[in-house]
Amino acid sequence: MSMTGKISGEAHDEFDFVPRRGEISDSSVSRFEFVAECDLPTERGNFRLRGYRFSGSKVVMRNGERVLEPIDEEPVVLYKGSLAGKQNVMVRVHDQCFTSEVMGSRRCDCKEQLELAMDMVLENEGAIIYLPQEGRGIGLSNKIAAYQLQDSGFDTVDANRLLGFGDDERTYSCVPLILQDMGIRSIELVTNNPLKESLLTDLGVKITRRRSCLVRANPFNSGYLRAKAQRMAHRDLLLDPIEPPRAKSDLASADGRAGRAVPRATGGGVGRASGPLNSSRGPARAAAVSLHLRPEPGNRTSTGGGKVGGGGGALP
Asked: Active-site residue among 50, 170, 185, 211?
């Protein structure tokens, strides 16, 4: 496992980050390596882009049990400036969102957060660690299945639970390794998510300040952002009072929703739904809609804020 690397031709030693197992994010690392670096001119400005390979495993909830699932991903870092050896470097840890960042979906605020972070890096220097963890770690097809449930009136948290997934199945095990490889001693974390801040702290990342990522809601994602604020304790969200247009499927009664076909998911446990779903990170427990899921081996699952305890998962 590579623990050192080169930035702009300079080699450097190990620094302050000591990856360690946390109570919330159990994981292991089997491979971590720096691959290559290049210039990346974009419409927003010019950056440097670094590529990595990371393999390991993470603990997720399946049918009420903690199980180990593999990780095999290629995180990248978009950065500007000479960051080696510096403290208080502005860093955004951003998770992939194909639907918004590529297809232009307005159901979430991920694309806008990424673009804001890019502008902040260009203005202040810093880095964006971009992780391929679509749909809070459940994958693109399962995310679409969750969207189908949201079209029927469930919020983003309950949709995940209905599919048998945890509220948040992401892991940030590679982040301290990347920061160490780049020689970054401490960071100012750009996030509205207290759980992400806590997970990174548990992994040994030294966070000296939290910076808000202020993105205003649109008529299609207001409900999603309210769920992040009310159920996930996300901070500093600019909620739009306008509700999203209601689709025909949203007009169904609760009984009508229960009778609708439920999408199939791969890799999750069997979830059931009715009434409030109270499990913080595991599958739903109540009775009503039974999901028949097809297992797929290998499917993976502050302004200075202090540590936040475990409990409800986080959203991007």
From this structure: 170
